[in-house]
Amino acid sequence: MAYIIGIDIGGTCTDCVVVNENGKVTLGKAFSTPPDFSEGIFNAIQVLAEELNTNVKELLGNTKFFLHSTTVAENAVVDGTLAKGGLLTTRGFEETLFAMRGGYGRWSGLTEEEKRNPIETDKLPPVIPITMIKGVKERTDYKGEILCDVDKESVVEQIKQLVNNGAESIGISFLWSLQNATNEETVKAIVKELYPDMYVTASNEIAPILGEYERTSTVALNISLGPLVTNYLTNLRNKLGNHGFNGTLLVMQAYGGLLPLEEAAARPVAMIESGPVSGLVGSKRLGEMIDCENIIVTDMGGTTFKAGIVRDGFIEYQREPMVLRYHYSLPKMDVVSIGLAGGSIISLDKRTGLPHIGPNSAGSYPGPVCYDFGGTEPTITDVDLILGYLDPRFYLGGRADLNKDKAIKVFKEKIADPLNMEVVEAAGAMYKLATSMIYDLLHKTTVERGLDPRRFALFASGGNGGMHVAAYAEELGVSKIVIPYSASVNGAFGVATSDIVHEEQITHPLKLPVNPEQINEIYDQLHTKVMKELEAGGFDRSNITISRSIDMRYRRQVHIVTTPVTTSSAFTEQSIDDVCNYFEELYTGKYGKDSAYKQAGVEMVSFRLRGTGILNKPEITPQKLEGKDPEAALVELRQVYFEKAGGLIETRAYDFQKLRSGNVIQGPAVVWTPITTIVVHPGQQVFCDQYKNMIITNN
């Protein structure tokens, strides 16, 4: 039996999905194990091996593709465990990382509350300190004409100085290298000649875009992550090999595709938030299977609540992504998040006595109080246990005990008693507060972007999503709720159903009207490059799909909208008109009626081409619908909290493993699965579909 394994490492749990050659999906989950995340990976694989009645070595020995998304890149930025990089830039522009873009860099990434207290906030220190930046005498103008060649002798001396100062990697970012990369390539060749094993990134390779600061910041982050991520991926590959794996290791990118290990290691900044993007990709894939093309994707795990949008089957890109307030410019699918999830710590403000949830998280160790790993601060998971949703017999398949008495004791002392409330009443209030925080984020993600939630289905994944989704979805007014079979391992499912993707872009602003041949020449360059990369990876043209899009804006505006190109043929004047009309439609949908202003003129800024190499993966097998009656799966009647019911009420609880496709459960109800818990409120019902997704609708 041949397998595909998808692994997604989160802040609290490591999720795993195995798909066999017949399309059967097996799910597994284990606690993440920082700083050595590989231990959590093998723990999750062990769970899957037991489910498949085999052992880890045999499972890995029969695995064709090991597909992986990880938080190792963003964790390194947040934790400050970065490599020491040295930067070579155009002389006179050594302080680009410090200047940022004025106030834009000063305020970006701050919350509204932090912006109101400027004295208490400041810029983050640059990724590369000024002592590790050298100015090179060289110059290329905006047309790509070289005005000053590189002085090779002085560059050799500058590189040696950086290495003597401890540089573990070298970055190169020269002015207008996106128009002519000759000077950057000259310097890169010198670095590799002097230090063949040195990790090197040139800006023309990773971020050939307008914006001196963003391009340089991308290079700085990449070289700071490069040695660390390279070591992580190499060590993981070796450990997998020691356990019998001899297949292909592919790594998820934040633009929604996979790359081989070596190519992923060359651009580790593209791995930032690849886990949440995996969930978006998995939801899009599931949407295609069940005929949903408008989806609000939510993921409530142990550390953060994440949300994204699939609109008409298309996932939008994030404008100006950042990590820990550091900007970078690479294609990244749009995911927003807040520090609210199962491990989020609940506290009371010392000045006002008002409750706060997050953003600090208890993680997996010490974790919530109920984990009994030494946690001393109450969390959302403790609240869910107190309210009757969780049961230790089913939590992580019964492999993790939950100490309810301890959770109640700590919550009473630290939250309920100071608020002068009963424990269950206070827990219900914290549940409601969490719901309102999630609603605020989703309202900004949808309504404030001109989207009508009533036209969307809401997909809820993450280990804690199923317990909270019915509450915040009702506030939002969506058409239906879908809790995927992959549920809390939806990111791993997204990885397991992904393909190899190379995405390239050229920034070349063109003001309309424009000669179609100018656009065709740009796309010919991109097409040649992407096809070369995919064919080198073993794909023939029959297994490659190409899609195109253009970043467009009204002239003199900063608001860019990525507009898909719906034709695969060469551009004509008609197809330019078509893409402009589509841009106007998307712009109006995003910013509101009458916001478009065609009279200002339209500008095409960047041209994107996405080449997908289709991996030979099995199709997921649907099951036969067996009838509505769920009684065979009934476990017990228990007391569960529902605000609308006025408190604890008798509720039917079901074992998901015993449910059959076609079963319908009337709320109030609780459904326990090995990887999540689903809460169905009074007035709702849940249907188990042919893929064992749980679909909640109002009665």
Written description of the protein model:
- The chain has 699 residues and is an alpha+beta fold.
- The chain is 33% helix and 26% strand.
- Among the domains are: 80-225, 3-Layer(aba) Sandwich (Rossmann fold); 344-434, no CATH class; 500-613, Dna Ligase, domain 1, CATH 3.30.1490.
- It is built from 19 helices and 33 strands.
- The strands form eight sheets. Strands 13, 14, 15, 18, 21, 22, 29, 32 and 33 form a nine-stranded mixed β-sheet that branches. A six-stranded mixed β-sheet has the order 3-2-1-4-11-12. A four-stranded parallel β-sheet has the order 6-5-9-10, with helices on both faces.
- The model has no long low-confidence stretch (mean pLDDT 90).
Estimated helix fraction: 25-40%
Number of helices: 19
* Structural category: alpha+beta
Q: Any guess at the CATH architecture of the domain at 80-225? A: 3-Layer(aba) Sandwich
Task: Report the count of strand segments.
Answer: 33
Strand-helix topology:
Elements: E1 3-9, E2 13-20, E3 25-31, H1 37-51, H2 56-61, E4 63-69, H3 72-79, E5 85-90, H4 96-99, H5 103-107, H6 112-115, E6 133-136, E7 139-140, E8 146-148, H7 152-164, E9 169-173, H8 182-194, E10 199-202, H9 203-206, H10 212-242, E11 248-252, E12 258-260, H11 261-266, H12 274-290, E13 295-300, E14 305-311, E15 314-315, E16 322-323, E17 326-327, E18 336-338, E19 344-348, E20 355-361, H13 380-386, H14 404-416, H15 423-445, E21 457-461, H16 465-476, E22 480-483, H17 490-496, E23 500-511, H18 516-536, E24 544-554, E25 561-565, H19 573-591, E26 602-613, E27 634-642, E28 647-655, E29 664-666, E30 669-672, E31 677-680, E32 684-688, E33 694-698
Parallel strand pairs: 1-4, 4-11, 5-6, 5-9, 9-10, 13-21, 21-22, 28-30
Antiparallel strand pairs: 1-2, 2-3, 7-8, 11-12, 13-14, 14-15, 14-18, 16-17, 19-20, 22-33, 23-26, 24-25, 24-26, 27-28, 29-32, 30-31, 32-33
Helix pairs in contact: 3-10, 7-8, 12-17, 13-14, 13-15, 14-15, 15-16
